[in-house]
Amino acid sequence: MTTTYWAEHAWLGSHVEPGVAIDADPADGRIAAVRTEVTAPPPGAVTLRGLTLPGLANAHSHAFHRALRGAVQIGSGTFWTWRDTMYGVADKLTPDRYFALARATYAEMALAGVTCVGEFHYLHHAPGGTPYDDPNAMGEALLAAAAEAGIRITLLDTAYLSAGFGEPPNRHQLRFSDGSADAWAERADALKGCGHARIGAAVHSVRAVPAAQLATVAAWAADRDAPLHVHLSEQTAENDACRAAHGVTPTRLLADHGVLGPRTTAVHATHLTDEDIALLGGSSTGTCMCPTTERDLADGIGPAAALQRAGSPLSLGSDSHAVIDLLEEARAMELDERLRTRTRGHWTAAALLRAATADGHAALGWSDAGRIEPGALADLTTVALDSVRTAGPHPRLGAETAVFAATNADVRHTVVGGRHVVRDGVHQLVEDVAGALADSIAALRS
């Protein structure tokens, strides 16, 4: 039986439309029909008060980093000192502990309007690098966690083979490494997608996968028409080390080994040359910006506007989960560019929403999501227009209000595949999300 959602206002990709009825077919989880000029809720319809958007795509996540929130805000340091603290959390995770933490983290995402997450997953093995009885136990825990939290996931199984150029993994990184790209591919082959899950690949970075093995990972993704992601030039130290080892930038190294292309997304891309930007844009390689993490880790401000002008589609991610708020990520991309250039208006609200919806989903291999139209997946996010942050503007400015004023606290409803996962700000599948977060993080302190 079709479920009808009546959106008080809906963003339809180019404008805000009042009174939109969205029929969702539970059999396939897709939108069967979209009707406009519906001035009142039809009989039996579920009312969505506020502005309804396509579901938000969080294109870059490390679920276990959620345990670092607050704990890494003491004292000073750099990305590299932050990384030492992150390793301490990774050392304590087991499949069961990871499931509990990821389930709670993904439930927090659902409360923030996220309907699909790209999980950049490199924590594969037991401490010391010994495989679990199920070599994909950690990845399977993430897939199960997303299912219980009610959201979609693209598991970006990550090749992480070295500590740096010519350096073996350190004692923490042994958990990440399969030893070779061929061994990584053999393990990743056993992962299977399902209704809520798709499998992709990732190169952790050019420092973590030897140049001679990059093509193996790229070919694995190409053979499966799967998304391929890579951390790129987040730190100037990576650029310097790559030039010292190979005489080229990380972007050029990836291009020379067949990693770039329309299915590939470069994450961060903070410190690029003009040639790097041209290589990424000219190959239609996407870029995932993670502004809240990039400012939290003092990475810098990436050339997002220049990348998009060059032809690189933009997506957004909450990465280390300093906060989980895709509206803030969208807002921050524009506001950071204003700080960098001292001019305003680099993206419209509609363009920023596309990065958070359709383009984010495309980066994760869900090209059938991120739009409110017949045939698309019935994934919706509704943002209140009557909170203390959003009250006042005319509803036709709903997109501008959502991007430049709303926060995750203003998300009222999240629908995934036609199922009401968050209703009136309450998660319908995970009871007491805050408690689940507190308990799963406390378990890592023991």
TrEMBL record:
<dbReference type="InterPro" id="IPR050287">
    <property type="entry name" value="MTA/SAH_deaminase"/>
</dbReference>
<dbReference type="GO" id="GO:0050416">
    <property type="term" value="F:formimidoylglutamate deiminase activity"/>
</dbReference>
<dbReference type="Pfam" id="PF01979">
    <property type="entry name" value="Amidohydro_1"/>
</dbReference>
<dbReference type="InterPro" id="IPR006680">
    <property type="entry name" value="Amidohydro-rel"/>
</dbReference>
<dbReference type="InterPro" id="IPR010252">
    <property type="entry name" value="HutF"/>
</dbReference>
<protein>
    <submittedName>
        <fullName>Formimidoylglutamate deiminase</fullName>
        <ecNumber>3.5.3.13</ecNumber>
    </submittedName>
</protein>
<keyword id="KW-0378">Hydrolase</keyword>
<dbReference type="InterPro" id="IPR032466">
    <property type="entry name" value="Metal_Hydrolase"/>
</dbReference>
<dbReference type="InterPro" id="IPR011059">
    <property type="entry name" value="Metal-dep_hydrolase_composite"/>
</dbReference>
<feature type="domain" description="Amidohydrolase-related">
    <location>
        <begin position="53"/>
        <end position="420"/>
    </location>
</feature>
